[in-house]
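Suppose you are handed a protein chain with no further information: no name, no annotation, nothing but its sequence. What can you learn? This example shows the usual starting point.
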Amino acid sequence: MLHKRRLFKTLSFCLAAGLGLSYATGALAQSGPYPNRPIKLVVPFVPGGTLDVVARMLARQLQEGFKQAVVVDNRAGAGSAVGVDHVAKSPADGYTIVLNAATPMVTVVSLQSTPYDLMRDLAPVAQVSTFDYVLAVNAKSSINSMQELVQQARKQPGKLNYASAGTGSGQHMFMELARSSAGVQIQHIPYKGNAPAPRCKAVGCGP
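A reasonable first move is to predict its three-dimensional structure. Written in structure tokens, the prediction is:
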């Protein structure tokens, strides 16, 4: 197992009221003094999103505590599977680790085939942050509540879209649960992270 060094400070990062999820880091085994060279912290989404912000805060804290460089490496794609696979195939020495949201770590492997085995190839290290979700719509729309969104979706089945950070992400799971509970058809538009997702301009896009 990875050398059990304590993460120096637990980060708390809150965006807004809504659904809370936890981040988890995964890494593999290593031996000998640790760390004695730079560490690569993989973020499996594009720069600018919540996970990327937390990763850069965490990297700064780790760098100060470890007295070694911690480099953030964004490797987006396939709902985080690209970045996670990179870590799974890296040497098992703790110098390549991944910061990912708990939801895609679990759901991606059940929604699609991945080149790694989550339980076999990765070892959890620590929860480093929690955050909340909000649902937002285009400011020019007439929607001001979840009830109004559902009403419009019922009037226009399959015509509204919603954006997420990717297939299997927390946003995807939350909206599919909400959509299913309301009995409406809203089209999922996955992105490579939550930074580009708000660029979706159709009524009903979010978060």
